[in-house]
């Protein structure tokens, strides 16, 4: 899975001299939480709904309505945007984007092809991919199995699954001498998979309907 397969293409952008009030209006109108900031065809910043809200005067301010309106009319995105911007390449694996967002504690990344902005990827997009990859909408059974941490153990375990079919599998934990796998099985006689696994000598630790 690549970032380009899950990103929002051709994101709405603003210029550095865009008034903050205009940027807030755009976010509300489009339902977004962040806007890339472009100048001369180059990405120069990123502004989020939090950045914009933080720039608004406090309710405890002593400024008059006229003074606040005057200040807000002059306040631009350039003054509140984040820079430099953390980005990710369109052809990067999706897990790289997920790792970047987790490490930097940010909710989205502009997506680049060289110097060109081509999209934006967010935590929500990563969650959509996670749901797709794990087959969470396919039903069936979710089965956790501890298999020996040795070559060939996965292939041996999989032989006990038919006539049902494995549609997803993931490593959930590393245990002393074992790996805990979580797999989703669908199809014919899924209810019999746990018993077949146990009969084959596998350690089934959890079974849940999909």
From TrEMBL:
<feature type="domain" description="CBS">
    <location>
        <begin position="81"/>
        <end position="138"/>
    </location>
</feature>
<dbReference type="Pfam" id="PF00571">
    <property type="entry name" value="CBS"/>
</dbReference>
<dbReference type="Pfam" id="PF22190">
    <property type="entry name" value="TTHA0829-like_ACT"/>
</dbReference>
<keyword id="KW-0129">CBS domain</keyword>
<protein>
    <submittedName>
        <fullName>Acetoin utilization acuB protein</fullName>
    </submittedName>
</protein>
<dbReference type="InterPro" id="IPR000644">
    <property type="entry name" value="CBS_dom"/>
</dbReference>
<dbReference type="InterPro" id="IPR051462">
    <property type="entry name" value="CBS_domain-containing"/>
</dbReference>
<dbReference type="InterPro" id="IPR046342">
    <property type="entry name" value="CBS_dom_sf"/>
</dbReference>
<feature type="domain" description="CBS">
    <location>
        <begin position="7"/>
        <end position="63"/>
    </location>
</feature>
<keyword id="KW-0677">Repeat</keyword>
